[in-house]
């Protein structure tokens, strides 16, 4: 009897030593219970009900260094926080008296068919979360029929990621403006040869990255190798280096959006790089509203993609209603990848369910029909909104 008592006591103490209490960083409290988790051990996917849960699981299992490298924003992370918070300031209109029995979430991006209007955005170093690295992001995206756009700073090579995709799967590829032009030429050729269909050209950290204090505590920041002198002439020259369509990524002002329209780009990607470059930059909601007000012809003249802080299906619906054709997820798939392909597939499933449910509640049967009538056009609670 005594030994049974001692055994139970030891088990309870042992459990208390390892029971996990995580700082949830102000993420919405939806009742996630981590008390059964063990620090440093991958929690079961069954515990996971949304993308914020996945972030907490990644925080639990990744080293401080790797978690910080994914999670970090620049400087005070005002833009990182604004990205997460902006969606709570936009109201969604839900219309009744509509037939929503047949929901359509599929769309085209640059003319290619995808099952959902959200995609996996380029993010470096997927191998920090799982040894399958970008391969699980590619295969999960392929199985779900969504777009994946690997980063040029990936763990795996361009060719290996291409091979990890399914037969016939359409992927685009991100590229940076390296100071070393022969590197750019070589990578663009390899991207095309590997079968990627378009280039997302990141233009928001030419020359330098944001100062990411949270990550610098673990790793000194390195020279990016990006060209600091990249201007409109360089952009014109870059366009001659590949026949693939180019989409400038990291547009943060309506003026740059209009410039890209005038230059004849097929699309732009509104993004502040997840708050990792210019701290203080506006959110995509604000930039899309600026474009609507000052250069609405952008939306009819080219496709617009957007990202930043998208963690719920409703966040994506807000960006789509404001004029985005497709919406990127940056950190969430990296966190989901701690379980490899199963985690990324679960993320796509959960996020898709949230979007579909909210569409139905809004009275939208076809995602391509979202427009500004579904969001409150006027609000006074955040900068740039009128
Ligand atoms: C860990 C990490 C690495 C990233 N690497 C790249 C990159 O290599 N190229 C790029 O264009 N954007 C990169 N981004 C930015 C994402 O493409 C995307 O714009 C941003 O993460 C969206 O914000 P979210 O993380 O809140 O979804 C990275 C973001 C993160 C979090």
UniProtKB/TrEMBL annotation:
Q: Where is the FMN hydroxy acid dehydrogenase domain?
A: 43-380
Q: Is Oxidoreductase there in the keyword field?
A: yes
Give the protein name, as stated in the record.
FMN-dependent alpha-hydroxy acid dehydrogenase
State the family it belongs to. Answer: Belongs to the FMN-dependent alpha-hydroxy acid dehydrogenase family.
| Positions bound to FMN | 122-124, 151, 174, 202, 249, 271, 307-311, 330-331
Top-level taxon of the source organism: Eukaryota
Q: Which residues form the signal peptide?
A: 1-19
The GO terms this record gives for MF are: FMN binding; oxidoreductase activity
**Sites where the protein binds glyoxylate:** 176, 212, 273, 276
Q: Which coenzyme or cofactor does it need? A: FMN
């Amino acid at each position: 009897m005594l030994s049974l008592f001692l055994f139970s006591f030891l088990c309870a103490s042992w459990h208390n030593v390892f029971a996990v209490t995580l700082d949830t960083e102000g993420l919405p409290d939806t009742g996630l219970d981590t008390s059964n988790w063990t620090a440093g051990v991958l929690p079961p996917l069954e515990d996971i009900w949304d993308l914020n849960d996945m972030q907490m699981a990644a925080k639990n299992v990744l080293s401080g260094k790797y978690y910080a490298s994914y999670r970090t924003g620049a400087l005070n992370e005002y833009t990182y926080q604004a990205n997460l918070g902006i969606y709570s300031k936009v109201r969604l209109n839900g219309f009744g008296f509509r037939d929503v029995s047949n929901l359509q979430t599929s769309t085209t991006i640059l003319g290619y068919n995808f099952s959902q209007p959200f995609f996996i955005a380029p993010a470096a170093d997927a191998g920090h979360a799982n040894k399958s690295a970008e391969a699980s992001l590619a295969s999960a995206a392929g199985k779900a029929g969504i777009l994946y756009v690997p980063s040029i700073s990936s763990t795996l090579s361009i060719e290996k990621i291409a091979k990890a995709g399914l037969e016939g799967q359409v992927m685009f590829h991100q590229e940076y403006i390296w100071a070393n032009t022969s590197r750019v030429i070589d990578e663009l050729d390899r991207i095309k040869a590997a079968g990627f269909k378009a280039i997302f050209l990141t233009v928001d950290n030419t020359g330098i990255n944001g100062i990411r204090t949270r990550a610098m505590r673990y790793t000194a920041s390195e020279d990016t190798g990006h060209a600091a002198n990249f201007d409109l002439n360089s952009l014109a020259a870059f366009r001659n280096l590949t026949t693939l369509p180019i989409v400038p990524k990291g547009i943060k002002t309506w003026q740059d959006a209009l410039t890209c329209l005038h230059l004849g780009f097929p699309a732009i990607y509104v993004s502040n790089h997840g708050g990792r470059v210019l701290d203080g930059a506006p959110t995509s909601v604000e930039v899309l509203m600026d474009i609507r007000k000052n250069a609405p012809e952008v939306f009819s003249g080219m496709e617009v993609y957007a990202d930043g802080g998208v963690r719920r299906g409703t966040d994506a619906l807000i960006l789509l209603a404001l004029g985005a054709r497709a919406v990127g997820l940056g950190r969430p798939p990296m966190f989901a990848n701690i379980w490899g392909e199963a985690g990324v597939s679960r993320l796509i499933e959960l996020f898709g369910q949230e979007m579909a449910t909210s569409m139905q509640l809004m009275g939208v049967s076809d995602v391509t029909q979202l427009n500004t009538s579904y969001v409150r056009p006027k609000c006074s609670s955040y900068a740039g909104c009128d």
